[in-house]
Automatic annotation (TrEMBL):
Coiled coil, from the record: 15-42
Protein name: Coiled-coil domain-containing protein 22
Keywords tagged on the record: Coiled coil
Alphabetical list of InterPro entries matching this protein: CCDC22, CCDC22_CC
GO biological process, one term: positive regulation of ubiquitin-dependent protein catabolic process
Residue ranges constituting the CCDC22 coiled-coil domain according to the UniProt record: 4-214
Keyword Coiled coil (UniProt): yes
UniProt signal peptide: none
GO molecular function: cullin family protein binding
Length: 214
């Protein structure tokens, strides 16, 4: 049988006690919300996406919002109910249940966090390695382009020399030996062919490097 307050003073003390308990419950609920925000902050800092965990966080937040509403309504009516102590106990159980859900969420997050961090680091290392490799390949391509330019300039210079020697040979008197000019011309032609082969090889190497980058 419930013992009702027998005086105005005892009734006031009873209401103050209930209000204090209600305040404690609200404080615990705020603490739970802070824990959820901390978990979300950890996920944001890592730059990782955990669909399952985020879903449970949203579910937890919805649950907390619902519990806040329930707590607010019950807090307003708890003193008007005939069984105030029992209802306060129910509120306490409700908050403790929320605490257990947050603990479970934190444990689940911790279970996923370590392998995710490891995977994140491996992917970052792979990305950095690929980036470095691409930079090296681009540098090699620039060097090959420079070699092509130099080889082309040299080939043009020798081609001009070849044409000049041909003109000189044609202008020589018929009684003068042309063997020295002929030998020189053959050497230049040989060098021009070699440089064209080198340019072809460099172009092939450049295409292969571009394929590796792409």
């Amino acid at each position: 049988v419930e013992i009702l307050p027998n005086s105005r003073t005892s009734e006031q003390e009873f209401r103050e006690s209930q209000a204090a308990e209600l305040e404690n419950l609200e404080s615990e609920l705020s603490h739970l919300i802070a824990q959820i925000e901390e978990l979300e902050g950890q996920m944001s800092t890592l730059g990782l996406t955990l669909t399952q965990v985020e879903g449970e966080v949203r579910q937890q937040q919805m649950g907390v919002t619902e519990q806040e509403q329930v707590l607010h309504v019950k807090g307003r009516t708890v003193e008007l109910l005939p069984d105030a102590e029992n209802n306060m106990a129910k509120l306490q159980v409700l908050v403790e249940s929320s605490a257990q859900r947050v603990i479970q969420l934190a444990a689940q997050w911790e279970k996923h966090r370590v392998p995710l961090i490891q995977e994140f680091r491996e992917l970052k290392a792979l990305h950095d390695s690929k980036e470095l490799e691409s930079s090296q390949r681009l540098l090699e391509i620039r060097e090959l382009h420079e070699r092509i330019r130099l080889a082309a300039d040299e080939a043009k210079r020798k081609d001009d020399l070849y044409k000049q020697l041909l003109v000189e040979v044609e202008s020589l008197p018929k009684d003068i030996s042309r063997s020295a000019y002929t030998q020189r011309i053959l050497e230049i032609v040989g060098n021009i062919c070699k440089q064209k082969e080198e340019i072809t090889k460099i172009l092939h190497d450049t295409k292969e490097l571009q394929k590796e980058i792409n």
